[in-house]
Amino acid sequence: MQNVSILGSTGTIGQQTLDVIARHADEYKVFALAANSNIEALLKQCLQFRPEIAVLLDEKAALNLRAQLKAQSCKTEVLSGAAGLEQVASDSKVDIVMAAIVGAAGLRPAMAAACAGKRILLANKETLVMAGSLFIQAVKVGGATLLPIDSEHNAIFQVMPPQGLAELADGGVRKIILTASGGPFRKYTQQELANVTPELALKHPNRVMGAKITIDSATLMNKGLEVIEAHWLFNAKPSQIEVVVHPQSIIHSMVEYVDGSILAQLGNPDMRTPIAYALGYPNRIESGVTSLNLLEIAKLEFEAPDVKRFPCLQLAYDALQLGGTAPAILNAVNEVAVAAFLKQQIHFLDIATLIAKALNSIKTTPFTSLEQLIAVDAEARSFANSNLKRLDSKRLLTA
Ligand SMILES: NC(=O)c1ccc[n+]([C@@H]2O[C@H](COP(=O)([O-])OP(=O)(O)OC[C@H]3O[C@@H](n4cnc5c(N)ncnc54)[C@H](OP(=O)(O)O)[C@@H]3O)[C@@H](O)[C@H]2O)c1
């Protein structure tokens, strides 16, 4: 029986993790569930899975949850704040940590899990984007096992030679091919992109995901963040990571070898496949995902991404090339810009403009500590917020 802590349990990845675990109740026990402030969802999960600990970042929400659990005679202990998140990520009783908090908030608990030597199922790509070198170092020093949950990286992991290559070429790998759905606006003109609403952007063609990653998919920033993630996970140079738009989302990514072979992982676009793969690794366990019907799919299409219409992808490559704190700046400004777009404070195209402005204005430096990165994250957010304040709700930054 393995004890699992799920950070971000009320989110889409968290819920799908619980769905897979519920199919294997004799092998995995939910030790802890953690979220931000969603009392109602966490209460339901606690009553169903009876974890030892539940954490809510929000102190008031935690008090409320504690009272409601007590009223229902549920013995789950309730913790709060960032310390609670780090505690359940590193508790000595925990074997597996699902890191599925969204955004920069997931960094510290993921680091805590790495330092404590856990098996980390990493959905929170922002951890690698912000702090790739530090996180990979913490995984090595802490003796942790890192398994990617992002479906693209999970696919690559499945078709790569055994991990730990100093260089891709050592394993005969020529390049990594990350597939992208292209998002809901793949065919939109620049003019049409200027007018898209949050409602439209939240309709992803192939997946149901949290709001932030759905907007990132629409701007192609999600693919950009994944390029940076692939760099750290697989020791791949930026020139060895290619992005190909594949609207059906059936091939989850590919690896090309020097002999011309391309190995791909295919399946229905359902995150329970990578979650089950990482939970069971190196064994395969049932995930609940239906078989892929190739005859029904019939056709797989590929096209090049258009970085003119979707500049966020290029901005991520640029930040990776710049190195140091540039990816953390990119990530922080993107989070602020996406939140502002969702609140209809800025337009869709302003997201990329704001990020480009920040990368041009904030000095990029090397970093050696988490504290340094957190300070850079705060500086970049403050830059983004002060630029937002200068806009009135109707005026486009891009105008
Ligand atoms: N969804 C996918 O298909 C998918 C695929 C690949 C990778 N990912 C990555 O997985 C991560 C989660 O994505 P998602 O789609 O599951 O997001 P989501 O549905 O928005 O869920 C986010 C989760 O994080 C919690 N949370 C947010 N801020 C927090 C904070 N400051 N402290 C503690 N918990 C916090 C939320 O709690 P509340 O409910 O209380 O707000 C919720 O449980 C992201 O990094 C995303 O890029 C997702």
SSE order and pairing:
Blueprint: E1 2-7, H1 12-22, E2 28-35, H2 39-49, E3 53-56, H3 59-71, E4 77-80, H4 81-90, E5 96-99, H5 107-115, E6 119-122, H6 125-142, E7 145-148, H7 151-159, E8 173-180, H8 190-194, H9 198-201, H10 211-219, H11 221-234, E9 241-245, E10 251-257, E11 262-266, H12 272-280, H13 294-297, H14 311-322, H15 326-342, H16 350-361, H17 370-389
Parallel strand pairs: 1-2, 1-5, 2-3, 3-4, 5-6, 6-7, 8-9
Antiparallel strand pairs: 8-10, 10-11
Helix pairs in contact: 2-3, 4-5, 5-6, 6-11, 6-15, 10-15, 11-14, 14-15, 14-16, 15-16, 15-17
Explain the overall architecture.
There is one protein chain. The protein has 399 residues and is α/β, with parallel strands linked by helices. It has three domains: 2-149, Rossmann fold (3-Layer(aba) Sandwich); 156-267, no CATH class; 311-389, RNA polymerase sigma factor, region 2, helix turn helix motif (Rna Polymerase Sigma Factor, Chain: A, Orthogonal Bundle). The protein contains 17 helices and eleven strands. It has helices at 12-22, 39-49, 59-71, 81-90, 107-115, 125-142, 151-159, 190-194, 198-201, 211-219, 221-234, 272-280, 294-297, 311-322, 326-342, 350-361, 370-389; strands at residues 2-7, 28-35, 53-56, 77-80, 96-99, 119-122, 145-148, 173-180, 241-245, 251-257, 262-266. The strands form two sheets. The protein has a seven-stranded parallel beta sheet, with helices on both faces. Strands 9-8-10-11 form a four-stranded mixed beta sheet, with helices on one face. Helix 6 links the parallel strand 6 and strand 7. Helix 2 (39-49) packs across helix 3 (59-71), helix 14 (311-322) runs antiparallel to helix 15 (326-342) and helix 15 (326-342) runs antiparallel to helix 16. The model has no long low-confidence stretch (mean pLDDT 95). The structure holds NADP nicotinamide-adenine-dinucleotide phosphate (NAP). NADP nicotinamide-adenine-dinucleotide phosphate (NAP) binds at residues 8-14, 35-38, 57, 85, 100-102, 105, 123-126, 150, 207, 209-213, 271. NADP nicotinamide-adenine-dinucleotide phosphate binds at residues 8-14, 35-38, 57, 85, 100-102, 105, 123-126, 150, 207, 209-213, 271.
